[in-house]
Design goal:
about 20% helix; about 80 residues; elongated; alpha+beta
């Protein structure tokens, strides 16, 4: 199995590099969009801990007013 990139345009996939197959060969495609730009890097445990601590600090600086109703799991869903 060969992995290659293609561009989808005008309703067809156009390979980005030459394909070594005879004309009319049936193939199976597995389509996965390719991100443009650099791949995101995984954060270290320390970086994640720092982000989480900043979020907690900001929440503590902005408490809910007294008497604010508490929502449970069922309240989180939109109902008509």
């Amino acid at each position: 199995m060969e992995l290659m990139n293609a561009i989808f345009e005008h309703g067809r996939f156009r390979p980005e590099s030459p394909v070594e197959l005879p004309e009319g060969t049936r193939v199976r495609l597995s389509v996965e969009p390719v991100r443009s730009g650099p791949e995101p890097q995984a954060l270290s445990i320390e970086e994640r801990r720092h982000i989480r601590q900043r979020a907690v600090t900001r929440m503590m600086m902005n408490p809910l007013p007294p008497g604010t109703p508490r929502f449970d799991r069922n309240d989180a869903h939109v109902r008509d």
